[in-house]
Amino acid sequence: MAEDISKAIENDARSVWSGDVMIAANPQTLQAVESQIALRRAQLDEPDDAPRTEPSPEVGGPLVSGTADNFETLQWHPKITPRVAAIPRRVPRGIVTPLKDHQTDSFDWQCRAWSAGLPRHYVGLVAHISERDSP
Prior knowledge:
By secondary structure, the chain is mainly alpha-helical. It has four helices and two strands; from the N terminus they run αββααα. It has helices spanning 2-10, 27-45, 101-116, 120-133; strands at 15-18, 21-24. The longest helix is centred in the first third of the chain and has 19 residues, at 27-45. The model has no long low-confidence stretch (mean pLDDT 79). Residues 42-68 are annotated as: Disordered.
């Protein structure tokens, strides 16, 4: 991957494909990939009982997202900050047909969830779980 990124940089390409993922071709990405390669090579050369050290983050370097799942245990909580709507909470004018009761309930619930600060993907998941678990 480092070689592909390096060649892309030399050819003034903005990105390069790695499998099914497009990666930015810039010096920061190349440095991040090379440091990961060096770290993994060093880990392979260390005996199993050697203490592991974490790489020190570089100030101003690229940010790489870490992921956590909540399948078996709760490992991650979203940061929720309440929002204040700049417009009144009502059905948009573009909706010309009258909403059915369940649609009105859903719209109201989504507005309240948004105002509470819930992210969109979380709002949909909670709605699905609530619907599934209701008697």
